Amino acid sequence: MYRKFLLLLSTSLLLCISTFSAKAQTRVITGTVTDMANGTALSGVTVADNLKSSNTSTNTQGKYTITIPVNAKSITFSYIGFQTRTMPVTEANTINVTLSSTSNDLQEVVVVSVGYGTLDKREVSSAITHVSSKDLLTVAANNPLMSLQGKVAGLNITNTASADPNSSPNIQLRGVSSRSAGLGPLYVVNGVPGGNIDNINQNDIESIDVLKGGAASAIYGTRGSNGVIIITTKKGGAQSQMFYDGYTSFDYLTNRLENLTADEFIANRVANKQGQDYKGRTDWLDAVTNSPAFAQKHTVQFSGGSAKTNYFASGDYRDADGIDLRAHKREYGARININHTTDNNMFVASLTAAPRYMNTSNADQGNFNNALTLNPTYPIFNDAGKYNYINTGFFSNNPVENANLIKSEAEIKELDINGSLKMNILSNLSTTVTISEISRSSKNMYFSPSTLSSIVQANKITQTNFAWQEQQENDQKNIEWMGNYAAQLGKNHFKLLGGYSYSLYNYKRMYAQNYDFPFDTYLWNNLGSGLYNGGAAGQGQSAVASTQNGSTLISFFARVNYDFDNKYILTASLRREGSSKFGANNKWGNFPAVSAAWRLSEENFIKTSLPWINELKLRTDYGITGNQDFGNYLSLLLYGGAGYFPYNGQYYQVYGPSSNVNPDLSWEKSLNFNLGLDFSILNSRISGSLDYYIRTNKDLLGSYTVPVPPNTQSTTFTNVGTMKNYGIELALSGEVVKGTDFSYNMNLTFAYNRNKFISFSNDIYKGGTFQDVAGLPAPGSPGNIQRIQEGHSIGEFYTLRSAGVNDAGALLVYKKDGSIVQANLASNDDKQFVGNGLPKFITSLGNTFIYKRFDLGIFLRGTFGYKIFNTSAFYIGTPSSQSDANVLKSAYDSSSKYSLLKSNATTSIASDYFLENGSFVKIDNVSLGYKQPLNIKYLKSVRIYAAGRNLHTFTKYTGGDPESVQVNGLTPGVNTSLNYYPSTLQLIFGLQVTF
Questions:
Q1: Does domain 24-99 have CATH number 2.60.40.1120?
Q2: What are the sequence ranges of the domains in the chain?
Q3: Which end of the chain is more exposed for a tag (fewer CB within 10 A), N or C?
Q4: 35-80 pLDDT, tens per residue?
Q5: What's the rounded Cα separation, in Å, for the pair 60 and 940?
Q6: Is the peptide bond before 779 cis (omega within 30 degrees of 0)?
Q7: Cα-flanking dihedrals φ and ψ of residue 573, to 5°?
Q8: DSSP-derived secondary structure for 88-127
Q9: pTM metric for this prediction
């Protein structure tokens, strides 16, 4: 395949060179754009030539580089809040410009990444949100997308353990879209699909574009169903510069769950014969908490170059502790971007490399819950100074011992590398080849020592200490070849794109474990010294494991952008894509899209009668996208171990079919419709967008029951089911105050989303009309508390409906016939739909104040219209909770409804008694900075800043921070495990220096 492709590529390039042997008639112009009032650099200024053949924008230092045809007569510089300025093109290759503030009618010009290229925002006809680096939040987080939280309407970013330095956010766009395939968006980093989001330093980000409309994301075919997030990193300019950013952060517990102190435990639990007094006094939650958790990060960036060659290089170091005793992360990263243009401007070459090394110690996400439930009269250490052996309560272990002695670590190496060669055949015709590789190697390690109190107490002589190692390798190789052509015929403007894409994915895993090492000091470094192989009858089946699998994705794509007189815009695209994951009968699929826009503000009847309107654009789009984010080989007949066969005194492994073949397995289809309005009024002081969307997901992937025989297995992975999401999104920004020394800008986002599950069946596979989900764990048998049912929404709670509490402290519930009985006398048939865990509204409000050299940002977020099942109250929030376990203070607080549940007869019976309003408003981010320009030879400016995150939460929810309960995915509004990782208030102090 590669040999044929390279031969085709070589032949085509030779033909292009022989046909267009003359030099490409272009030249490169560089320069700097500054504010006329104070001389500061202007970032994000749009730079375009009069022929509209090329455009770019200035970087954070106000620098730009643009390639224009030699017959271009002028270059225009546009920036919101400043007067547009046009400069003539002379023989000079450097054009420096100053812009002055104005209150005249302005057009906002923003360059937006649309997938395989960029467009002026005014040319965009689909739903795309553009966020520049200056608009990102000040955060100290493991993942750069946490800086985008709340900034994009419809994009929900959550992290239920944000104080864990190894945690990653859950990201969902416009609601849940699948049952069994991936729910997250596709990441495109510097034009490479499938980019590694963890290998990006926030300081290196130039802009983020979120493709929400189906017409925009359809250009990515089977990977565009959940939206696309395009991240563009910074590039070098014509002038050399060095930049440093460093911060320290401190995380403090906030919104923590409060359990009984030792004295309260004795007064309430011991006195009522629900616990014992072991004479100790221990605050277990405090004992397993590392507060404040300290982190530091340092970034150094270098950029510069000439008119023909520029570079950008950065290096970063981060060292972060978690709020628990064990979590830690140390990482080193770098990024280099080099761009070179030949003297004749015929070829442009680019190279990007981004390595990263991480050493992590993983948090024990259950340790805080262990601490919450332990008897506070138990001491941490026994009389001999050893860790106390604990065999009471929910989890029967010593969480301080676990955190300090059990080790769980990882070494992670990542490398993203890509190179491209662009050939400018004509001033309006070019072709580009890009080759890239994204690799990740993870070595995971675990060790449990022989000195654990549970091992010592049991006098074990086998299966004492235990260790394992796991090596995982992920690799993605891509090659893409594109061609671009632009033409202008009078008032008709055309842009044509065509391309080919080939992606090869590979995954490898090797695992080994053992017990009974001679020394605990070996940890996981000498597995062969162990004596117990972990298998039955000496076969060792669980002692070692290895696997390898992969997939291939091949695509052809094309897009045409057309506009007439900058008023009427039409875009159409088609991607034809084939995947090895699909069945033999459905290897290939087509993903078309079309969008249109009408710029009413360019019509004379608007310009003359409504001059206060600067931009008014009505747009609509429709596109079909797919989802192939599921496991490999699920369409094939696979063989696996099927037991052992004895022969001549030996046991031999027997293999047999382990899955059903499905030649019709295909991608999930997403039918996307969007109707939107973009506007800018009052000299662009107020601007925004409004979108209404409907997304129907068909052929949902899942495992369905089939008869045996003729099938060898009882379930088949196939395409069945339909789901729909619809909603409204609003984004609004305004310059509320615009003065010489003081300004105030406001940004508002609002999203409304509703979901409906339409069907579980099709003509071939007939299933039930519902599926029970969100099963709660022991103790007891609470069962499932949510149901996905046809005609209902994801997240519907399906439990008994409470009718209060009787005098004996037992829960009362309604039966289906309306009668009231004690909860233990009801059955599953009496369950009802009692609420929904999927938020209806998500909103944010950003406020930016600038006074001279001071800047202040205040960012608020809110989520409304949903229920949360209070898992902690259900298990440890009532007087009837498990004996000798600690409980929350609410169990004996007369003002809490949970204090009424005193009867053991109805313990562990789930009902809507434990549903609470999850709505909240957060003072999410407050940042204050001061920048001092300096007229020193080696120093240009210094900025100091401070920020606070999660400063306060306004909510009626009593189970701690409502954001600790996930609202993305198939079971929103409920924690289905007892794990608890508390939220934190974070303080950040930083310094930025420009040299």
A1: yes
A2: 24-99
A3: N
A4: 877 677 887 788 888 887 777 888 878 889 998 888 888 899 888 6
A5: 14
A6: yes
A7: -145, 160
A8: E--S-SB--EEE-B--S------EEE-SSSEEEGGG--S-
A9: 0.88
